[in-house]
Amino acid sequence: MSTFLQLVNIVRQECSATSGTDLVTVASVTGESLRFKNWVIRAWEEIQELHSDWRWMRAEYSFTTTADDGSYTSTQAGISSRFGYWDRTYCTVYLTATGVSDQTDLGWLEYDEFRAEYLTGSQTSSRPRHFTIGDSNELLIGPEPESTSYTVLGHYFKSPQTLSADADTPELPEQHKLIAWYAINEYGGYNVAPEVMGRAQNKIPRMLATLRAKYLPTIEMAGPLT
């Protein structure tokens, strides 16, 4: 595992940009060192944005329902920072007093179907059975719960992490050098150094393939046609 400072120094070393010693901080760098710092920042953000469903960016939320309220913002769901978007594949509900032994899945409905089912006409509040995402990116559950007796638990995906402090560590579980090679490739383009870009572009596809195999959902093939 490499810190932000260590990644910047790795990139400088690979690009033969060191001037005797490694940087001891990235807090107040200028000139070429600032460019290396920014290349690492952008490299990490770019990797995170390659896919919207990297598994290391998935997190859990949990909140207690409000009586006769079926709409919850990310803040109301207990998510305090870096909310990206709701995971549409997993949302559950259970009676808080009973605990997870009562836990059942909420079925996903597309918004138009959910609106027709739960947002049109008179409704009777009861245990929620379905969920969807509203036009303002709020979590909607239906029917509206009749009480505060329920806990809703599900997953969401975090927005990209931004590196800033020396000791910041990318949330990527492994392959931190992939971040460095992305930054090295940027250095090669900026300085018109084809040999540097060539080394980076030789490393990146293989490391990225390994990362995708480990941290993206498995694609299931459809069965044979009958």
Tag the structure with descriptive keywords.
226 residues, four-stranded mixed beta sheet, alpha+beta, four-stranded antiparallel beta sheet, 2 domains, 5 helices, elongated
Approximately how much helix is present in the residues? 25-40%
* β-sheet strand percentage: 15-25%
Order of helices and strands: HHEEEEEHEEEHH
The whole-number mean of residue pLDDT values reads 93
The Rg value, from CA coordinates, equals 23 Å
Structural class: alpha+beta
Number of strands: 8
Global outline:
elongated
How many structurally independent domains?
Answer: 2
Strand order of the largest sheet: 1-8-3-4
Q: Count of DSSP helices?
A: 5
Low-confidence stretches: none
Main sheet specs? 4 strands, antiparallel
Assembly type of the shown chains?
single chain
Distance between the termini: 50 Å
Give a concise summary.
This protein is an alpha+beta fold and 226 residues long. Helices cover 33% and strands 19% of the residues. The chain folds into two domains: 98 residues, no CATH class; 102 residues, no CATH class.
SSE topology sketch:
Layout (H helix, E strand, L loop, with lengths): L3 H11 L16 H19 L8 E7 L6 E2 L10 E13 L8 E2 L1 E2 L2 H8 L11 E4 L5 E4 L7 E9 L17 H15 L3 H22 L11
Parallel strand pairs: 5-6
Antiparallel strand pairs: 1-8, 2-7, 3-4, 3-8, 6-7
Helix pairs in contact: 1-2, 1-4, 2-4, 4-5
